[in-house]
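user: At home tonight, take the chain set out below, taking as long as you need, and be ready to discuss the fold:
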Amino acid sequence: MPAERGFTLIELLVVLAIIGLVLVLVPGFLWRAQPGLEVQVATRALADGLRQTRSDALATNRERVFTVDVAERRFRPGQDRPLEPLNGALDLGLETARSELVDAESGQIRFFPDGSSTGGRITVTMHEQRAAVVVDWLTGQIDIGDARP
């Protein structure tokens, strides 16, 4: 009797189930293993919100503020939007003009109709990973970079 070649349907289903399980579990482990990704996602969200607020100030020809609540790890791009949360494991720092401090744990960066701003820096830290979103006061330019020590 000749030897059988190929695989049974059960063997193929077991292999496909194992591959599916690996594809579901591995990204979660990789995400948790790289805190730098969390910092990068948070800084991009903050930068996008700042750009949105600046664009709104230019489009409406009115001052707009970007609010940051350091203690609660939340931010608000503009006055009419709800506070958006960031990952609870992140630490935030805010440097802004003294006139824009709301209290000891929150403040604002104000954008003017000509595109300029009060300027500031939002620092995002998680474990040893740090990054900052910097707003130039003169031009309102928003940049992401490494946080200075």
Summary: Helices lie at 9-33, 35-60. The CA atoms of residues 27 and 33 lie 10 Å apart. Residues 35-145 form a domain with the minor pseudopilin epsh fold fold (CATH 3.55.40.10).
